[in-house]
Design goal:
3 copies of one chain form a homotrimer. By secondary structure, chain A is α/β, with parallel strands linked by helices. Chain A contains 13 helices and 19 strands.
Chain lengths: 438, 438, 438
């Protein structure tokens, strides 16, 4: 039973501080689905983990899709007729519609307006916009500023390029005893937005680092991929071995103050679905469980009918439900270390279940064993709640008939998985319980 | 996808007006389980649809039952000693207990009273009573009148006959592509009562007429039968082909202001049960779902254990739950065209599902297809709600794996069947979706 | 249909009065898991039923356990230095920790205190304590008294013995038509405590007596056993025939004013689980259903994974939830005849279902039969509620298709089992219904 040890040994708050520092470092970079921003991001992650970076050429066919041209941007601004930069990419990379084509032009306010985007409901915030698959250009700005733009001749400059190049993504494989894999996937295509999804990137990085340092039963595959086109590319290039993925999570929005939310896999009752629910149920705070729907993050691809992988989505406030979503207010203030720590601890709890929910056999199945002579009723280290722990012993003995694993016992008993796993650990030290599966 | 077109093409309000006119015409006829009233009713329905009328002789054995003698009535009254008709069949055919034997007699009030029936809770209304299988006679009257009857010698006259004859019922078969049938059944044995069941008769008539004018996948069988003995007779004479009935509805009480109510078939989870629930759920008003019970209308016979047909009951206020039930107040005021129109639209919605809930195959099941290049995100004709329609596209693609039909997708997505069917229709025009079943 | 007759014939109040008298007689005896107190108890039960008493020698191995030494006690007290008995076993056998080793000693207050037990939350009550498997000694007393004990030299005397001997238990087998058995088990190891479990002992005694006097389909096995070691011993000695037990109940706490509570068997959906719920649902008062857990009474042993017998627990207020539990306040005032009568009537109801829930076949499954000609609509003796009884007829006919027994029909119809069973009884007198199973 490594998990308990693991959960005790690692300090989620310390990890959260490191994750927050990484978010601070990654925040300024202008990422997109391709380009130098992604590469720079992957390089920075590579300082923490031995990330493998893949480059897939423009024009490559990946299922129904084609890898697009690579987009890079150096500068962009709008100047008024006095030569004042009224909108400047250097102040916020959200100002430019992601994937905007290069441009140098002088435009009237009316001409310009068709390419300006704002969010009237939050007049101070810059919204985030993209146009990956339809060539165009545009600027995003605070609605308050847009509304007051005077008639003028504006100089518009976008120093970007759309060229034959590569789509870049990162992959990190942590081998375990089994060839069976757990997939952790996060999207890396958003520019200066913190919760969506620097929070996911940072926690995935430190989770993978942690797992690489401990013995594991499952192998773990971490994907740092641009949204949609990223998992589609990986799945196209790894179609044959996708079946090895036995459990999976997409990570996003893990640093805001909202309650933890889990969106179930398409299967709905996969072990990952049950494991996350077991963790959230006993975490001591409110949470929300959503049924699968084919709209959302990259679980859309993993859960497409041809793959139907058991991959769910772990978030705090779901996309679109926090007002700062896809605006400049999704910044370093929205994401805070305590929420990152809470999310990280829940991830560890889920992995604890995946790693340790084995089937055991009660070797003394006829009536209860005489526990007194085995000294099992003593308080166990770290567990104040002796009654819970003794009940857990009885549950593990009663249900270890070869058809229930520890997660089954956790669910039926209503006790936390940690108590059930600890009871199994204690019982396995005696003659009363043996591991059933190999 | 005919259904949408169908639903759009037909004006439920116009149908409801015609149905109401038919009800007005049928209202005065004194129907019973046999006799001229039934024949006259069937003749009038025959003006709208090519109804086949069956006549089954008195004494014919139908399962455990025997076709009774034919009842006809020409006149009936009670006169007081002054020769005044205080109760007159010509004023309301409810005045005579249905199937009353012929009689001419002079009686004291005391003798007469044993044959008088009233409803003290509604002292102005004439109740409706029958005695099909036990020979007797009787009169029904307003309780207010009955309570004030003076001591007198009364002349009682019933000019009826109980003779060897026929049981008459109507049948209308609308052929479709398949030999598989949808059964629509309504009872025609009630005299001047509107909701129960001229409403059902009229809507069945115009529904069958409508279906006869459009291409259909299923074949539809409409039965206009006297209650209980009618379906028993039909089932006895068609036992061998009852298995062709794949879905069915009994129609009754479809014109009152109450909420729509569906009583499930004995199976409980038949497609008809799911289809009606899907329609009522999205109809925008309250509704009620009742579990099957062996008490009620003719679903009792279709759902008897030897047949166990998937036949439910669609009503508005169920029998016995509206105060006018089986009284003279179930009249042309209780039933109103807007409620008939609402019921008719729901019937069309159910048939839409039965006809169009096919299984499709997503031909691009690995990851989502690139919808942008197929112009599928444009607003579709008639659908203002683009977000719903786009979500429907994703759901149809995600679940069209060969094991879900469109009703399954409707249920799991929580979207209206119309949106799901429209999405399938649009996708089937591209290379992305093909019909699975033949 | 004997059950109805049975339920009518027997007067639960009369039984409850006899049961209460038996409780009064048994109350003074100092029982434990072995010893003369158990034998004396079994002798007294033997005056009512032909109980077979088994004696199992100390040292016998029963699964993981060993039969302990036999404990007997004649006297015990604590005297102060004036020679006054301040605690006296003769006043209450709860004063001595059950299984206390023999002792004669003079102790200071401080030395004595380590062996004194009280309940501060109920300062007037003597708590009940045991130490079967760890040799020690102790006294229990009212907290009020304990708190005021002065410094003194105390004389402590326990005239007990722990010797090679026997474990005694009682068994009573009531044969029925079938070799299949219903197990009724109650624990007999508690000294002067009434609800836990003289109530269970007394009701089991009179239930077994009643069953021995009527024809039965099932065979019934009653066990009067010391807790835990008792059923373990029986199961060890009868392992081969435990499979004959098709239904079972552990009885405890059946005389207090609390609501009836049923704890389901480990299987959760066994017929006994469904039967008890059906009885409690229609009993007209509040009740509680608990899921199985491996903590509780002797269902722990019967439901151990190696046996997994369909044995639930019937109580009123569950153990630990009434304040008098395991104290001197669980006395002849807590238990009252009306609650014993109510519990007994529910037990009869459960047995009624087990005995009479057969599968029947509707011989006329195509459409409803013509009930009128069979005179089945007449009010039936003892049933005022004609509408319920007529509905029950229709339900029995509709569901007697060979795959539903009467309990299934009771559950689906929502009608009481008594109404369903009576309807089946009436129908079976006609040509319409025949027993399916042999």
């Amino acid at each position: 039973m490594e998990a308990q040890t693991m959960a005790v040994r690692i300090d989620a708050n310390q990890i959260a501080d490191r994750a927050y520092s990484l978010i601070v470092d990654l925040y300024p970079i202008c990422r997109s689905i391709t380009g130098e921003g992604v590469r720079e991001t992957l390089r920075m992650l590579g300082k923490h983990i031995a990330l493998e970076v893949h480059e897939v050429p423009t024009g490559t066919h990946v299922f129904d899709w084609v890898i697009p041209r690579e987009w890079n941007i150096r500068d962009a601004y709008i100047k008024n007729s006095k030569g004042e930069k009224i909108v400047d990419f250097k102040n916020s990379n959200l100002h430019v519609v992601n994937y905007s084509a290069p441009l140098q032009a002088k435009l009237t306010l009316q001409e310009l307006r068709e390419h300006l985007f704002s969010d009237p409901t939050h007049p101070e915030w810059i919204p985030y916009r993209t146009s990956y698959y339809e060539e165009t250009w545009g600027f995003c700005m605070a609605h308050r500023q847009l509304a007051e733009l005077p008639e003028d001749e504006y100089e518009v400059f976008i120093d970007s390029s759309l060229t034959e190049g590569q789509l870049s993504y990162g992959e990190y494989f942590v081998p375990g005893e089994l060839a069976d894999e757990v997939l952790i996937s996060c999207h890396i295509c958003h520019p200066s937005l913190c919760n969506d999804n620097l929070s996911g990137i940072a926690l995935a990085t430190f989770l993978s680092k942690h797992l690489s340092q401990i013995p594991l039963r499952y192998s773990y595959r971490f994907l740092f991929v641009p949204g949609a086109i990223g998992p589609i590319t990986w799945l196209a290039q790894n179609q044959g071995c996708a079946g090895r993925i036995k459990h999976g999570l997409v990570l996003a929005n893990l640093g805001d103050p909202g309650t933890s939310t889990y969106k179930k896999s398409r299967r709905g009752d996969a072990m990952i679905d049950r494991a996350v629910q077991a963790v959230l149920k006993h975490a001591g705070s409110k949470y929300e469980i959503l049924d699968f729907s084919p709209y959302g993050y990259d679980e859309r691809q993993y859960c497409s009918p041809g793959f139907n992988l058991p991959v769910g989505l772990l978030t705090r406030t779901p996309h679109g439900r926090f007002p700062q979503y896809h605006t400049s207010a999704d910044n370093l203030d929205l994401v805070q270390p305590p929420y990152l720590a809470d999310s990280f601890a829940k991830l560890l709890g889920v992995i604890d279940i995946l790693e340790h929910s084995r089937k055991y056999l009660n070797t003394n199945p006829h009536c209860e064993p005489f526990l007194g002579k085995r000294n099992l009723y003593r308080p166990m280290g770290g567990f104040q709640d002796v009654a819970t722990q003794q009940l857990a012993l009885l549950w593990v003995l009663n249900l270890s008939d070869g058809s229930h694993d520890l997660l089954d016992i956790c669910e039926r008993s209503g006790l936390p998985f940690t108590a059930i796993a600890r009871a199994a650990e204690e019982l396995a030290k005696t003659d009363l319980l043996v591991l059933k599966d190999s």
